[in-house]
Amino acid sequence: MAVTRAEIANRALRRAGRLAYGQTATSELSNSALQGYDEIYDYLERLGIVDWGSTASVPNEYVPWVVALTAYNKADEWGISTDRYARIAQDANAAEREIRRLFNDYYTSTEVRVSDY
To answer: Are 12 and 74 in contact (CB under 8 A)?
Structure first.
């Protein structure tokens, strides 16, 4: 099941230690996280490696990577601890590569070859 933009924002807030499970984010923090997601989506779209709409749900296989990038994108604004920042940065460094791999694997596996006819 795909994950909504709002849930990506909440997961990024939890990943950054700004929101505990069961808590609801303030509107200011929620808007910041949504803006962070929108910025990451725009970046990935410029790279040509997204296949979902900006307001559509994110496919499951992309979720951990998009969450990591969103949390990393807002790390300075949210004042993340040094240890947590290091873990998020490590995941964010791998995220673009993994998103490219997922995107390319999908299109490679669904590509119709001339030899198939």
So the answer is: yes
- Round to whole Å and give the CA distance between 31 and 9: 9
* pLDDT at residue 115 is higher than 70: no
Within-domain flag for 117: no
Question: Distance between CA 63 and CA 1 in Å, rounded?
Answer: 11
Q: Give the dihedral sign, CA 107/1/58/86.
A: negative
Nearest to 9 by CA among 53, 71, 65: 71
In a domain, 59, yes or no: yes
Show the tokens assigned to 100: 């490219």
Domain count, the chain: 1
Domain coverage including residue 63: 5-108
CA gap 26, 10 in Å, rounded? 11
Cut 0.70: pTM above it: yes
Give CA–CA dist 113/80, Å, rounded. Answer: 48
